[in-house]
């Protein structure tokens, strides 16, 4: 099956710094990648949708200048949390998709803790 | 009102029991319905998907959709301790193609007692 690799799996950073999370589709080319945030005991909340080579589409309430998404190739999308604050601490998950395929493939998630 | 409502649980049942997990939704445009399983600190994995109303069976799992009531269910027969996980319902108006926008329920934590 298709594999999506997300890195790092855990990161701790100081308040005010930036953190980059990578999402790679290892054995297929992803036309679309989605970024989600999941707080404890809550649902996956879609943050943004990115298509290779174009600007990401952000969901309402998500600050695009704070959560920078780059989808430079069909196998890599990155999410950069800029000027991180403790309230940004969460579980961030990416998924990669391919038009015509039924299953969305999820990364293993990144646990971000801002101290 | 959330687009998708799901009881967070936790739900604890003995091994071998039949488990019923449910979600309600408010958006009539949803046509595609999915159930995902998520183990702790892992990404979700797709269990089943259905289109519009009806039933679908896959091994010990049965998914039901009642669009008139805006209600979907997942049944697990002969539950096993390895089924212990969080189960997320999900739905889409665009399709269950992986390139479609999917809305998730909050997830139900299920524990199967040996």
The first-to-last residue Cα distance of chain B is: 37 Å
Largest Cβ-defined interface: A-B, 31 and 24 residues
> What general form of chain A does the structure show?
globular
- Distinct helical segment count of chain A: 0
Order of helices and strands of chain A: EEEEEEEEEEE
Task: State Rg of chain A.
Answer: 13 Å
Query: What is the C-alpha radius of gyration of chain B, as a whole number of Å?
Result: 13 Å
Largest sheet of chain A: 7 strands, mixed
Taking all residues together, what is the mean pLDDT of chain A? 89
| Helical stretch tally of chain B | 0
Overall outline of chain B: globular
Structure, explained:
The complex is a heterodimer of chains A (115) and B (114). Chain A is mostly beta strands and 115 residues long. Helix content of chain A is 0%, strand content 52%. Chain B is 0% helix and 54% strand. In chain B, β4 and β5 (45-51) form a beta hairpin. Chain B is globular, with a radius of gyration of 13 Å. Chains A and B meet through β4, β5, β9 and β10 of A and β5 and β10 of B.
Task: State the gist of this model.
The complex is a heterodimer of chains A (115) and B (114). Chain A is mainly beta and 115 residues long.
Characteristic key phrases:
A: 115 residues, mainly beta, seven-stranded mixed beta sheet, 11 strands, B: 114 residues, five-stranded antiparallel beta sheet, globular
């Amino acid at each position: 099956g298709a594999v999506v690799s997300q890195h790092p799996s855990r990161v701790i950073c100081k308040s005010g710094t930036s953190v980059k999370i990578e999402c790679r589709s290892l054995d297929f080319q992803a036309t679309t990648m989605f970024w989600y945030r999941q707080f404890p005991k809550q649902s996956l909340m879609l943050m943004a949708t990115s298509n290779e080579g174009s600007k990401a589409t952000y969901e309402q309430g998500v600050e695009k200048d704070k959560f920078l998404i780059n989808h430079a190739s069909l196998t890599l999308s990155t999410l950069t949390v800029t000027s991180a604050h403790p309230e940004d601490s969460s579980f961030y998950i990416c998924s990669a998709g391919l038009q015509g395929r039924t299953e969305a493939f999820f990364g293993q998630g990144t646990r971000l803790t801002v101290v | 009102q959330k687009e998708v409502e799901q009881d967070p649980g936790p739900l604890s049942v003995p091994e071998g029991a039949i488990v019923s997990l449910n979600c309600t939704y408010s958006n009539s445009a949803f046509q595609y319905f999915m159930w995902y399983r998520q183990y702790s600190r892992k990404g979700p994995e797709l269990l089943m998907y259905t289109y519009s109303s009806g039933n679908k069976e896959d091994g010990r799992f049965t998914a039901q959709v009642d669009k008139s009531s805006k209600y979907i269910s997942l049944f697990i027969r002969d539950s096993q301790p390895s089924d212990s996980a969080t189960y997320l319902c999900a739905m889409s108006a665009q399709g269950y193609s992986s390139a479609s926008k999917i809305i998730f329920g909050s997830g139900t934590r299920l524990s199967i007692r040996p």
